[in-house]
Design brief:
Number of helices: 9
Largest sheet: none
Helix content: over 70%
Shape: rod-shaped
Length: about 180
């Protein structure tokens, strides 16, 4: 079955499985640049020392790809850290400084304001000293007095001034007749 030429040179005919196996290994040589495939090939070749010796070039290439990928990841991490630092210095630090400044300014403004009396304490002092008006002390007051206390007081003041003016005029008239 074999050719006479193959018998004389000592070559034997390869099976289809062996041919296909060589094609697969050849395609793995081309795909070894991918870090995922390289990691799988290294794991597979490390299990069998015979395969590692048979495909030592592929094994070395895969190890080189994995080292290069690891260095790339380290470089990317450093670049990411640098970019985060720059963004923090450009945006985060000034924003934090402005926030702290606003908080401290608000605290300073509050410290500068005059102290407020408590309403209950002031009311109690007015009631005990007798300076309370009828509304504050809870005495009976009509709703109209509550609604318009200033108008009523103003009207009363105007009336008193009118009475004073009228009495002074009448006194002058009376004094003028006596003379």
């Amino acid at each position: 079955m074999q050719n006479d030429g193959e018998m004389r040179t000592g070559k034997r005919r390869r099976s289809l499985v062996e041919v296909e196996e060589e094609r697969v290994w050849a395609s793995l040589y081309r795909c070894a640049a991918d870090p995922m495939i390289a990691a799988e090939l290294v794991a597979h070749l490390e299990k069998s020392s015979e395969l590692r010796l048979q495909h030592s070039g592929l094994y070395l290439r895969c190890r080189h790809v994995l080292r290069r990928e690891k260095a790339r990841q380290v470089r990317l991490r450093k670049m990411g850290a640098g970019i985060r630092w720059v963004m923090h210095m450009a945006i985060g630090a000034p924003l934090g400084f402005a926030t702290r400044l606003c908080r401290s300014t608000g605290t300073i403004f509050l410290a500068c304001l005059p102290e407020r009396e408590e309403k209950a304490g002031a009311q109690l002092r007015r009631l005990t000293t007798g300076d309370a008006n009828p509304v504050d002390s809870g005495q009976g007051v009509s709703p109209s007095e509550i609604a318009h206390p200033l108008r009523d007081n103003a009207a009363a003041d105007a009336g008193q001034q009118a009475n004073i003016g009228a009495s002074q005029r009448s006194a002058k008239r009376a004094g003028g007749r006596e003379r």
